[in-house]
Amino acid sequence: MVRTEFPFAVETVDPLWITLADGTRIAATLWRPRTDAKVPVVVEMVPYRRRDGTVARDIDIHPWLAGHGIACARIDIRGSGDSDGDLADEYLPREQQDACEIIAHLAALPWCNGNVGMTGISWGGFNALQVAACRPPALKAIITNCATDDRYADDIHYMGGALLTEQEMWSNFMLVKKAMAPDPQIVGDAWRAMWMDRLAATSSLSEVWLAHQRRDEYWRQGSVCEDHSAIECAVMAVCGWEDSYSNFVPRLLEHLPGPKLGIVGPWSHAYPCRGAPGPLIGYLQEALRWWRHWLCGEDTGIMDEPPYRVWITGEERPQPFYLPDHAGCWVAEDQWPSPRIERRTLHLNAAGLRSEPAHGATLSVRSPATAGRDCGRWGGYGGSCPDMPIDQRREDGMALCFDTQPLDDDLTLLGAPELDLLVIVDQPHVNLSARLCDVYPDGTSALMSYGVLNLSHRDSHEHPTPCLVGAPFRVKLKLNDFARTISKGHRIRLALANQHWPILWPQPKLSTLSVATGDSTVMLPVRPPSSLDRDVRFEPAETAPPVPTTTLDEGFDRRIVTDDVGSGEQTIALTSDHGRRRYDDRAITVSSSNSDTMSIGNDDPLSAKLVTEYRWAIASADADTEAMAVTELTADETHFNLSWRLEARERGKLVHSASATRRIRRDFA
C-alpha cells in the first residue's frame, strides 16, 4: 500500500554536502520532517548512487520515515555517486571512519536531537554493523538487513572455504559501478574531470579477493563476529530465507550482548515491504517503532515483541520463482538459541536415516562436474527472476542419498542442521555439498537447506591442509539455518555430493567420496509449537509514493540451460535486462543489463568457465555516459586465470578502456 498522508510534511535537501576532516566532500540526500521540535536522524551509506541507482527504494522508504518524524540521510560513500575520493574496496576502515565523522556531523546539526540510527540492506547492513562496533557516541541503534557478521564465511566471496562464482559476477558489477560519472546536476562542470579520475583508478576487485583464499586478516577486518561484544547499541537484524545472508540473524541473536531483535521472513534480497516472494509485512511500521523507542525515548512496545519472529515455510512445490507469496505462517521464540528446540540425531545407515546406528557398508559417490545446476543461484533474487532451486530429483540422482521413513505426523524444523561424518576420499582436494530435502510422496524433492565445505578447510579456514587420501577422517558441517514444516507422509532426504556447480568453483579433479554408514550422523532442529505463535502480527506493507518514473523499455529475466549430449558440456546462461526508464522528477534516464554464462564438461572440472558482463548507461544534463565490463574466470590445476575489460563511453564514443589478465595461484580452492 502506498501512503500519501503523513503526520509531517517532508523537506528534501539534495545535495546535502558533508566535508570530512581530510577535505573530502560527501554527497547526501536528506529527508527531514517540517517541525520546530528536534528530531533524530537515520543514516544509510552505500556506493550504489542515490540519484539514479537506489532512488526507487530510497524514495519508497526514507520519505515515509521522515513523514513520521524521523529524518533520513542517504549517503553516497567516498568515491561513489557524487562524492569525492576513490572507492578502493568494500568495507575498508576508511569507510568506517568516514561514517563516524558523518554521524557526528549530523548529530550536531541544530535540528537534530543528537541521536542517530544507522540502517541499510546488504552493503548498508554490513557497514551498519561495522560502524556500530566502532561505537560512535551518537549512534544509539541500527537496523541491519540482509548482511553478515563474517565476511569470509558468509558473504559473496567464499563459502565453507570454497570459492563462490558469485564473487566474479559481483566484482564485474562493481567495475561498472565504480566507473560511472557523477551527476552534473549536482557537481556541475567538474563532473567530467571527476569521472576521468575515477576511471583511471578503477580495476577489478577480484584481483584482491582471489589473493585472499584463506580467512586471513583481510577478511577478519570488518567481520564483527571477531568481537560481538564491541557492539553495544541496540540491533534489529532482518532477512528472508530466500536470501543468502539469513544465517546472520540467529548468530547475532546468540552472540550480541546488548538489546536485539530478529525477524526472518520468506523474502529474497530485498526490504520486507517491497521484496519478493511474499507475504510482505509492515516493515516500516516496525522500523518506526524501533527508532522512536531508541532515538526518541518513547515506549512503543517494540521491545515487548518476541526476540525472534520467524516465517515457517509450508508445503509448496519447488519453483524457479515464487509470486506472489510463499506458503507458511509466522511463529516466535522468546530467546535464541531456544531451549525448546529438540536436537534430534539421525544416523546415516545403509537403509537410510534412522534413530539408531546400523554399522555396515561404506557407501560412495562420484558426482559429475555438472552436479548442482538445479540448486538455484547463491544470490537469488526471487520475484520473476528464475533463479530459485527447482525439483532436486536430478541432483539427488548424482548424490549419495539417505532418506527417513515417511513421517507419521507433520514435523517443523527451525535452525541449522549439523553433520558429523566419517569419510574417505581419493583426492587431496575435495568439495563436499550437503543438501536437506523435503521429499513428497510422488518423489518431488524440495531443497530446504544446504551447506558446503572445502574439505581442506575441515579443521581451519586459516590453515587448510590437504585431505588424507585413503584414510578415514571426521568432518563436521553446519548447514544454513532454515524453517519449514514437512507434511505427514513426506520423507526427509540428506543428499551428499562432491560437486556444487555453478554455485561453487570446482576442485581440479573429480573425486570419490565415501561415507561410513552407522558412524555418521545428522542433527535436525525440531521445533514444537509455542503459545507465542498465535500473537505474531505485522501491519500491512506500506511505502511512500514512488519516484515519478516513465518506463521507456520493459526488461526481462531469462535462464537457459543447454546440455550437449555429444561432448557432455553444459552451459547455463543467465540474462537480466533491467529495461530503460526515466526518473521524471530529476530528468535522468537509466538502462542496464547483465549476462552470466557458465559452462563445464561432465568429466572435466578444469573446463569450468565463467563469463560475466554488465552494462549501465545514464543520461543526466549534458552527461550521456555508459560503462561496460566483462570478466572471465577459468582455472588449471595450479592457478586461477582471471581477465577483465572495462570500457566507458560518452555519447557512444569510447573515452576510456582498461584490461588485465592475471594468474593467481590456487590456495586449496
TrEMBL record:
Domain named Xaa-Pro dipeptidyl-peptidase C-terminal: residues: 288-532
Residue runs in coiled coils: none
Gene Ontology molecular function: dipeptidyl-peptidase activity
Keywords recorded for this protein, A-Z: Hydrolase
Superkingdom per UniProt: Bacteria
Alphabetized PANTHER family for the sequence: COCE_NOND FAMILY, PUTATIVE (AFU_ORTHOLOGUE AFUA_7G00600)-RELATED, PEPTIDASE S9 PROLYL OLIGOPEPTIDASE
The protein, known as: CocE/NonD family hydrolase
